[in-house]
Task: structure prediction
Amino acid sequence: MNSRRLVGEAFLHILAFALVGMGVVSLLGFLGVQSPTRHTVALLPDSALASLLIGTLLLGAIHKIRGVMAPTTLLLLTLCGYTLLHNALGGSSDAAQSWVSGFLRMRSSLALILAAVVLGIHLAGGSSLSRIAAQLLGGAVAILATASQLADLLPQLAVLSLGFKYTSTHIANLFSLFLGLAVIVLARRRSNSQPQLDRKALSAGLFGVLLTCTAWYLLSQQASESVSRESDLLLSRLQQAAETELHSHMALMQRMAERWQVLGERPGNRLWIQETQSYLRDYPHLDLIALLDEHQQPWRQEGHGPQHEQWLQDFIQDPNNHAWLAHVQTESGPHLSEARAYPQAGLHMLIGTPLSLADGSHHLLLAALDIQALMHKLLDKQSGGFSLQLRAGEHLLYSLQPDSQPRFATQVGERQIRLHHDQHWQLLTFINRPQVFGNSGYLPALVMLFGLLLSLLLMISQHLAWLAREHARNLSRANDQLQLSLAQQAQAQKLNQRIMNFSHDVLCSIDSQGRFHDLSPSCKRLFGYRAEELIGRRFMDMLYPDDRPSSGAEISALRRGQASQSFRNRCVHRDGHILHTLWTADWSEQEQTLFAVIHDITELVENEAYAENQRDILSMISMDRPLPEVLSALCLMVEEQQPQVLASVLLLDASGQHLITGAAPSLPASYNQAIDGAAIGPHSGSCGTAAFRRQLVIVEDIESDPLWENYRNLARPHGLRACWSFPLTSHQGQVLGTFALYQRQPTSPSDEEIQNLANAAQLAALAIARAQDRRRIEESEQRFRSLFTYNPDTVFSCDLAGSLLGINAAGEALLDLPGQQLIGQPFISLLHPEDRPLAREHLAATLKGEAQRYEARLALADAHLHHLDITQLPIMLDGQIVGIFGIAKDISERHSTQARLQATLTELERSNDELQSFAFVASHDLQEPLRKIQAFSERLGSRAAQLDDEGRDYLQRMHAAASRMQTLILDLLDYSRVNTRGQDLQPVDLQQVLTEVLQDLETTLEQSAATVEHQPLPMLLGDASQLRRVLQNLLSNALKFQPPGNLAHIRIYTEVLDNANWALCIADNGIGFEEKYLDRIFHPFQRLHSREQYPGTGIGLAIVKKIIERHGGQISASSSPGQGSLFRLVFPTYRKDSP
Amino acid sequence: MNIRPAIPILIADDDPDDCLMIREAFHECRLDTPLYFVHDGETLLDYLRRTPPYQDPQQHPWPGLILLDLNMPRMGGRETLQALKNDPKLRSIPVVIFSTSSSTDDIQHSYRMGASSFISKPSSFSSLVAVVHSLHHYWLEVVALPQHGLPT
Result:
């Protein structure tokens, strides 16, 4: 740290502390003193306040605390302003009261200086320009202070004095000077500097300063006290002396007066002269002795000179004195008059003594006393440096000023001299310059100065000590760190050493000639030589001859400065075997040495080779090489890896029972042939057993192992002694074959060999599985291909845009175009334009995933329109639609057939309808003439009297025929109405229908005494009225076709046939019929009996059949003549929930 | 026995044979009900509305009952029935449908249209006679018919 800055900093701090301390101490002192006088107060309270404030301001300025600077500045400026103003308005500050403290005001010059300093402090913190201004201001202040101090010697500068008395001026000068310097130092400080003094230094400084201030204050107090004491002494002495003198003079005059009084008359001339002369002589202060008569006129007077007589005259004539004179005359005893100064003789006072003569006249004996001479004599030049004043009230009687230049007259003490009566004189002492008492007057200021200096030095030294301590601390810390890092380094080095020693890689350095300079101990492992043996040998010697050129080239490249890369080569071990190494090297230009790390990668290389082989096999598999080729390559690979073994792959045949040779390139062909087709089983050699057990089978010695019992003699001629077999399984767990290794010595495999075997087996399994898969795919493809190719219908495939990707032969024939031309065309364009929008819609729907079936027409060159039934399917691959399959059937023929059929159907329907209505109308209209025939034949019958029997018979037959015709027509109508007048099928309660029918037949049943036994009938879907008809017909048939005299017994019951159907059975005990007539009875108008035997038109059962068939049922009957008949009506089961 | 004035029956039928039959049947029943025949719906309405040539009320008296056949040319029985029942003046005359048809539709329709009853023409004369007898007895003896001329 800059020592100048340190000093400047310390100085500023000390000054600030001092100002503050001084202010505080002075204020405390002022407040503590009961009756402060100008003399006792060391520093004016205003000044003390100002000092405090400026000290704080300075501190704030040093530490750049804005919060402190602003208020103090404000207060200071207010104080200075007030002082200046008050001083300007109220006159000099020497005697006036300050409103701030109630004591004397500061001097204007001090206020000005303070204001200037404040301004300077503020400017010092600003820009460089203001800084310069501040420095100038500071300089001016310092100069002013110096000038003020020099005012001692040069009275012209007295106007600048800063204090109100000497001591305070000195202090004020000192501090003003310091303040000026402080402003300069502050201004010269760098703007970004921070106070750097440590706490201890500051506190030491503060302590020193406080001590100094206290000492100064105490000293100044003491000084003032001693001065007070001195003045007291002087005053008391003077007082006593003056009183004594006066009294003695008064007594003298009294004596004189008494003497003359005794005389009783006015003294004679000679006596008078002699007395007065002797008095005047003895008492030099008496200037005149006079005797006044009762008219107060001087009768006799003697004095030192005529001026005194004149003085007396003036005195007597002065009217102010008449009272006194009168008073004295009347009184007894000497009296003192007031001191009067008249132009001739100066200040005198009279001692008057009344003299009453024998003649009763009151005379007055007066003696004029020269006060000043008296005082002078009393003082006898022993004023002790004090200025003295004798006052009688307002009048100054006497003053003594040892100094020629009284600048600060401070009143020190006051005494009252009691005179005769109530006259009082005041004796006042003043002090001007304290140094008059000796140099002790300077003491407080000097103490202050030196104290401050000492504090400064203390602060500086403290700070330096702190700095030294800091420095020492830093050093020790640095030292510790250094130790730490050294320790770390040592550790690192040890670690490196250990690494060097224990690493498997060889760390070596090779010099510029290619000789080993240094090697790590691991070279023994790698190369077989110890480090010492290799040092000095050329590294090229270690390399395999073929690799020397390439490695040499790499090294040269490194030496030229290329970036370091690792390179491989082969090295020769001491015992001759070759190992692969990886060299990582770096050339150091500085040391001209190649640093290399040699890593043994033999295993890595072997593994790489192995991996590469595997990759080759896999690529062979992926390229779909024929299976035997792949398997041979695999066997060769395994044999290459393990030179002693012979490998073979056996495949499981389609039956899964026999192993056939897959590949065995190194085994003798005869052996392979011999074991070809061997069955698998628990004891069928290694391979068979492995395939059987689905486990690895290791046969160490073929000769002794029981598994090879049957096959031993096959293996022996070829010298095969050990066989290890691994079953090959697909990922679904199927056995595909076996992979076997043969050895010519009995050996058991190591774990590594088993692992290799397993790997190879996996590859083989993969190859076999893939070959099988491929075959399956090919087969499947061929199968599906035939669907495409041989389909008699057109099969085509499209892409997502609808363009044809492929079309089969049938399609080509249909379109009469070769497939090549069609591929790429949108298939919609092949369709008839009118059908294209529909086709597009269906195409879009198919692309969304729905199979579509629709018809469209082909647009072909010939006019013949081909109708196609097109089925479109989306082609899904992994859930994505990738195209469309289409099958187009040529349905032109079918279409035309259908069209014809449709036409026929329409025609039929039309004619059917015509016939229906015709039938209806016809039957209806036919009835009408029939009725007439019947009616009129009946009428005729009533008038048939004129007819003969034959005629009546003819009439009868005619009537009967007409009736029959009517019945026939009605029956025909009924029959035709079954389907046309049928109502929709609704749920019908058959039980209800039966009940109604039985009610209708009630009369008939009663008449024929027939019994009907019936079971509850279920609900069914049907037409109620038609069903009623059915039951009616069947029941009436049952009642009608009875042998005469037989009581009809009808049974009605139900049978459940299966889940879907049930049967209603109506059985009677009638005449029955032969079952060969089963068909006939259900035909319309077909009867088995004549109308004489049983009435009826033969339409009843036909109607029943028609109705039943309309209901979706069937009717059948079974009967035998004389055994009654059973009519079975099969209905579909009515389920309430089915629609 | 009450002397009642003979209430005429108006019969609408296009078939002359049927008309003959009816006349004969009434004759057979020894009933002297005056019968008046029209042969289609329009003529019937003309008769009832006294349009020429049916203006003479003496020659063409107001019927107490109308027997209406359904199948008639020009205006069939169904439309005639509807017209009769829509006309406030003619509404109150009881109309008995007398038709060869016996289809349920015709029967339902007739009743729905406001016919008083529906009789299928019987096929034999004797049945016809019985029907006529019942008809006469019911409609002209048992039932009180509305009087013509009074406000309806």
About this structure: The CA atoms of residues 27 and 146 of chain B lie 26 Å apart.
